[in-house]
Structure formats: C-alpha cells, structure tokens
Backbone:
C-alpha cells in the first residue's frame, strides 16, 4: 500500500489508486478498490459512480472549472504534477479550494518531492503522494521550513501586511 | 530605505536554513542535479564557465553602506575580490564555491540581504528608476510599491514554478523611463487618473532575449490598492496558460501575442473579477506603513549653490565636465544627484573590486546619508549630495575611478560579461566595449555627440539589452568564429523600440571603425541639437548601411 504524507507530516497508509486515462477506444478499467479517475470521465458518467469510492484526478493541463459546483460530491481529488517543475497544479489547487469551495481531501500526485511540499500545503493540498525514492521521514521538516509566509493563500486569509496592521 | 522587522528577519533566517539543508542533500546525492537546479537558481546560484556564479538581489537597486561593506568582505572571503553590477540592479559574484553558498547567504541575511529568486522560473527582483524619490517630476515614489511587490512575490506558493522567469519593473516619471519598463514581463507606469487618484498603467509581455518585444498596455488605469490582486490575476493566467513545451516560447510575451493583448487582457479581467476583493487587496495602512520607510532623509534647508559651482567650474575644467554629465538636478534646493560611473576604459563595465565597494560605502556615508542605488546601466548613484560638497566629492572619487564624465554618452556602454566569463556566450563583449571606448576617448567629440545608448550582449539572451540600445551590438557565432551584429534605433524609454539589424555581421577588430562610420553618418545628417535617435528616425537605416558597407 502506498504511503501518503499528511499535512502535519505524518505518514498514513491508504488504498486509493490512480486510474490512468484509458487510451483512445479503450474503456476505463476501475479496480475494486477506492479509485481516482480522470475528472472529465467522472463527469461524463457521474450517475454511474454514485455510492462507490470514486474520486477524480486532474492533470496539470486540465481545467478545474469543469467541476464547478460539483466538487464536494467527491471524497478525494488529486492533482498530478507530471514534472515537479510544472507549476500549474498549484493554481488548480487554489481554484478548487478558494473558488469552488472544495472541502474534502486534496492530494498531490506524480513528481511530488520534498522541497515543494510547503508550497503545496499553502495552496490547499492536504495529502501528498511523495515520490517513492524520497525519504518520507524528512517530510515533516520540509512542510515547515517556513513558520510564516508573506501572502494570503489557501492556508491563510491574512497576508503579512494585514497581520502587521493588527 | 526599507528595514526588516521581526517577520522579515525570521523568513530570511529560515530561507538560509532551508538552503543549507537543500545543499547538504544535494551534496549527499539525495537530490538529483535536475531536482536541485531550480532550488539553487532560486537562491541565485548559476553554474558557469569557470565556477558557479551567485546573483545577489538588490531590491530595486537600493543599498546601505553597511551592505556594501558586507559585499566587499564577501567578495574577499569567498571570491576573488570583485563583483559585478548587473543590468537588473543586482550584484553578481563570479567565483564562489558551491559549498560556501549557504554561509554567504547567512552573511547576507545578517545585513538584510538575500539572493532569493534572482534566477529560475519565478518572479525576479522588481526594478525601478534609480532617481526615485529625489527627482522633480515623479508622480509618487515608486519604491514602496516595489517593496510591496517584493514581499508579495517572495516565496509565493503558487508562482514558484512558472513557465519561465518573470520580471516586473515600475516607473514613476512621465517624462523619463530609466527602468525600461516596456521591455519587462510586467511594466508598471505610475499615473494619476482624472480624479487625481494614484494608480498604474499596466504593460504586459515585453522582453528581450530571442524574441524581443515591447509590452502592450493591457490596462490603462489600475488603482493602487488593486495592485497585488491584479498582479496575482496576471500571474495566474500566465501560470496556467503560458507554454511549457518549448523553453523559447515560454515567456509571457508569447502568450500575450498568441491571445492578442485584448484577448489576454480579457482573461486577466475575468480572473481578477474573482479575486479583486480577496484578502490580498491592499489596504491604505499597508501602503502607508511601507511608505514610512521611504521618508526623506534629514535634509538641511539650503539654497542652490549656483555661484559657488560656477566659480568651481570656471577654475577646473574636468570638474566642469563631470558636473555637466554625471550630476543631475534634485527636487530639494541645494542638493544634487550624482552618478558614480563604473565605466572607466579598461575595466569591464559594472565590475567593482572589494576596495571600490568599500570606497563607495565611504563616500555614501560622507556625502549621501549612507545610501546608494545601483542602476540598470551598471552605475551607482548617490542620490542626496549637497551641492556645496560636490567639489569635495569629485576630488574624492576621481582617484577611485568613479568620475569618468561620460554618463549616458557613447562610452557609458551597457555590456554583459560575455565570452570572458559566460558559458552561453557566442562572443566576447568586454573587449568590444573597450575598443570602442578607446576609439572615442576625445571628450569634446564625445560630448558633442550627446546622449547615445550603446548596448552590447555576447549572445541572444540579451543580458546587455542590445535590442534597445540606440546602437546595439550582439555577439554571433559564424562557423566557430566570433562576429558581431549591429542594430540601430532601439530605445528602452517611453518611446520603447526594438532596434533594426543593420546587415551582415563584423569581425571584432572592425567594430570601432563600424561604430565610427555610424557616428559619422549621424554627425553629417543631424540638425542642430538633434540626438542620435531622432536623426536615425528621420533619415532611416539606409544612409547608415550605405556608409558602413561601402
Ligand atoms: C555570466 C553570467 C551570466 C549568465 C550565465 C547569464 C545568463 C542569462 C540567461 C541564460 C538569460 C536569459 C535567458 C532567459 O532566462 O530568458 C539572461 C538574461 C538576462 N541577463 Fe544574464 N547572464 C549572466 C550575466 C548577466 C549580467 C552580468 C547581466 C547584467 C549586465 C545580466 C543581465 C541579464 C538581463 C537583463 C537579462 C534579461 C533579458 C530579457 O529581458 O530577456 N546577465 N542571462
Ligand atoms: S548575453 Fe549571453 S553572453 Fe552575455 S552574459 Fe548573457 S548569456 Fe552570457
């Protein structure tokens, strides 16, 4: 079972699997366990998945606008970082949280490394599928390199310029 | 000038600790080279031809004398005793050792300096006019807004991995633009609207490099309190839609062009509508708090020293020349703005030794409230000098080599490090600058030519801003040989223009002659006081071509 880092740096086991996008002409093959499927495919067959442990994942070029109004029907949403240097996932996360009001678990998947964890946390991710070769015991430190940030983001409504004023 | 409070200090200290940790993991092989790359770049560390290069941020060009002294010490202790002022108002060290960098950053943090986001695909140092706060015709002091942008952009969690680097510049004068804002990813021109309210005209999508462009206006008036939310909207649109498949098409200018400026502006407005009133919306108090750091120094109440200066000029011709060229008028009576030129023939433009850094600190303390500003033309400004002390200052800096009276003239060359230092260079640039400076060493002739921007880059990356030089020189590689392409008519000011290529490139030894012929055409064709650029615009490129390729 894969290890998942949580927001406070602890490690949890879980059984969610990421189902890749099927090739053209193939159909979605969902295993008999909690599964994350491409967001557009979930939308297309939504009724079908009711009552099952199904969540969705977005790739970095996907548009989260797709699920405006529906996000809280999902127990888990994941955002894929195909390369850690592809920063689109940070914007997707903030939109899911701050614009579409997503309340449940938001997970970073793909090329998830230690030095990006704190940015991910600040943008609203609360679980992280750290890449397997990375040392999960260092995650707690990496999540907390900084004790505060200058900006408002998903984690805080109060940018430093407002904290200073109070 | 801005002073850190306990929050800034804590964040700076945590940054140093973080980079120490990252460097240790990189040296221990826990981080691959690819993974470490953006981390070190965002701490200013490039790996270069001869050694790593460390680019230290000088936010909007401002430095205190204690910071200059610390830089001097760092160049001595960790480098070869000199540093380089860049065209983005930063300072570069050319020879630090990788394992020393965390210690260097710790030393910098002690004097409230850092190398954050000076490289990499993130929001870089915000730059502005070196005469901010002391010139007569500015709309408001732009530095508090630069500091606000600095804080907002520092470790912004959403924008640390943009498609490409991102540069913001702010200008506050309606007459001049010393910050070259129209060739930045975002250029902010301070303006007042009809109601007298302060705001910004927003240019997006300018830049140099491989595809030089002048940034179009995407918003005519942005109220000042909306600054950060609007920037956040621009960056979000760029982060989501900027190209990531091709490094050469990844700058925001390509996106703006692809969507058209109108199309891009619409997308930004749509995004902004959602976040306009978010907590990132600035408050009056927040702006005033930062403005409180940029108050006027304790000026004496003085009269202009017109008569004294006239006498001193009359008695000393060199002082007279220096005063005419390197000294500008100040908003306060009795004060002046002095530029220390780092362009003495024979030293690479922008290079300073440790001793010179200390000398600059010394004169700043003695003559200008202990502060200086680095300019994007690679010079250093003392912004608040008493007119009755100008002569004494001049006597002081003349032997130091900072009084070459050539500011804004042909020999005040902007020049990148080029092939002597830079792994990316096609050709050397420093020897070209030097050979042209030698050719035009006759002061009277030089002054008669008036202001001419000569900008030299060693390759397409355009670190020397060659596209926007009135005369631009670009190093090119022809079958392994170093050649130089010349362009004419560029400008980085309010009339920003990308220069036009003159024709086939030239060998290094021909460059002084080529420039001399271009100058001859200008001298033959100019009307009275007409500057080079205007003559060029009037007569076009043909007469220059005919003469140079005759
Ligand atoms: C030897 C060290 C240097 C290296 C390796 C280097 C490398 C580069 C590279 C790779 C780019 C551009 C490409 C890009 O990111 O779009 C660039 C852009 C730039 N560099 Fe440098 N550079 C060096 C030194 C300097 C110096 C000393 C200056 C100042 C004189 C400078 C000023 C700039 C500027 C202003 C740009 C931006 C041009 C634009 O708007 O696209 N660089 N540099
Ligand atoms: S313009 Fe080219 S040669 Fe010059 S410093 Fe930049 S990258 Fe190097």
Residues:
């Amino acid at each position: 079972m894969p290890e998942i880092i949580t927001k406070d740096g602890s490690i949890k086991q879980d059984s969610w699997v990421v189902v890749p996008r099927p090739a053209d002409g193939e159909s979605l093959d969902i295993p008999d366990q909690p599964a994350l499927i491409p967001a557009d495919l979930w939308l297309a067959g939504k009724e079908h998945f009711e009552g099952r442990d199904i969540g969705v994942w977005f790739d970095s070029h996907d548009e989260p606008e797709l699920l405006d109004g529906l996000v809280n029907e999902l127990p888990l949403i994941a955002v894929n970082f195909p390369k850690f240097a592809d920063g689109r996932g940070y914007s997707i996360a903030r939109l899911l949280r701050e614009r579409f009001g997503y309340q449940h678990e938001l997970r970073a998947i793909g090329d998830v490394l230690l030095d990006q964890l704190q940015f991910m946390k600040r943008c609203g991710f609360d679980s992280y599928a750290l890449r397997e070769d990375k040392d999960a015991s260092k995650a707690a430190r990496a999540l907390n390199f900084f004790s505060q940030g200058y900006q408002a983001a998903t984690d805080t409504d109060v940018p430093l310029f407002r904290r200073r004023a109070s | 000038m801005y002073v850190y409070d306990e929050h800034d200090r804590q964040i700076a200290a945590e940054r140093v600790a973080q980079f120490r940790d990252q460097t240790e993991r990189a040296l221990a092989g826990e981080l691959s080279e690819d993974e470490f790359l953006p981390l070190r770049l965002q701490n200013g560390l490039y790996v270069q031809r001869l050694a790593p290069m460390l680019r230290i941020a000088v936010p909007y060009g401002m430095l205190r004398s204690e910071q200059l002294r610390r830089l001097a010490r760092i160049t001595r202790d960790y480098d070869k005793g000199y540093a380089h002022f860049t065209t983005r108002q930063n300072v570069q060290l050319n020879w630090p050792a990788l394992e020393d960098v965390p210690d260097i950053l710790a030393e910098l943090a002690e004097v409230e300096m850092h190398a954050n986001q000076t490289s990499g695909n993130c929001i870089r140092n915000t730059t502005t006019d070196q005469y901010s706060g002391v010139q007569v015709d500015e709309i408001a002091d732009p530095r508090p807004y630069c500091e606000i942008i600095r804080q907002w952009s520092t470790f912004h969690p959403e924008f640390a991995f943009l498609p490409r680097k991102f540069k913001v510049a702010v200008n506050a004068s309606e007459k001049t633009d010393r910050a070259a804002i129209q060739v930045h990813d975002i250029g902010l021109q301070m303006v007042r609207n009809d109601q007298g309210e302060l705001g910004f005209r927003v240019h997006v999508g300018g830049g140099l490099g491989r595809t030089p462009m002048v940034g179009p206006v995407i918003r005519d008036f942005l109220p000042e309190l909306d600054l950060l939310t609007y920037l956040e909207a621009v960056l979000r649109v760029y982060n989501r839609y900027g190209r990531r498949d091709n490094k050469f098409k990844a700058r925001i200018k390509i996106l703006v062009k692809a969507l058209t400026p109108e199309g891009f502006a619409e997308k930004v407005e749509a995004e902004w509508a959602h976040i306009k009133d978010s907590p990132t919306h600035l408050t009056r108090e927040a702006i005033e708090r930062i403005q409180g750091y940029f108050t006027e120094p304790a000026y004496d109440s003085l009269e202009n020293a017109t008569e004294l200066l006239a006498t001193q000029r009359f008695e000393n011709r060199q002082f007279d020349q220096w005063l005419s060229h390197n000294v500008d008028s100040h908003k306060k009576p009795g004060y002046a703005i002095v530029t220390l030129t780092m362009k003495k023939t024979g030293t690479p433009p922008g290079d300073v030794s440790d001793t010179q850094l200390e000398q600059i600190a010394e004169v700043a303390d003695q003559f200008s409230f202990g502060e200086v500003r680095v300019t994007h033309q690679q010079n250093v400004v003392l912004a608040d000098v008493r007119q009755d002390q100008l002569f004494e200052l001049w006597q002081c800096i003349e032997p130091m080599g900072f009084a070459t009276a050539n500011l804004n003239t042909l020999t005040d060359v902007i020049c990148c490090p080029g092939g002597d230092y830079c792994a990316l260079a096609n050709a050397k640039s420093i020897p070209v600058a030097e050979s042209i400076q030698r050719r035009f060493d006759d002061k009277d002739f030089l002054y008669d030519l008036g202001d001419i921007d000569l900008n030299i880059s060693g390759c397409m990356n355009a670190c020397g801003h060659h596209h926007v030089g009135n005369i631009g020189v670009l190093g090119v590689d022809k079958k392994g040989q170093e050649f130089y392409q010349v362009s004419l008519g560029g400008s980085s000011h309010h009339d920003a223009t990308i220069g036009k290529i003159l024709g086939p490139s030239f060998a290094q030894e021909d460059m002084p002659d080529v420039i001399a012929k271009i100058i001859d055409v200008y001298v033959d064709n100019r009307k009275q006081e007409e500057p080079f650029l205007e003559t060029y615009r009037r007569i076009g490129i043909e007469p220059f071509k005919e003469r140079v390729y005759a």
User: Anything to note?
Assistant: Chain A has a mean pLDDT of 95. Chain A has one domain: 3-165. The beta strands of chain A are 3-6, 11-13, 17-18, 35-38, 54-58, 76-81, 105-110, 127-128.
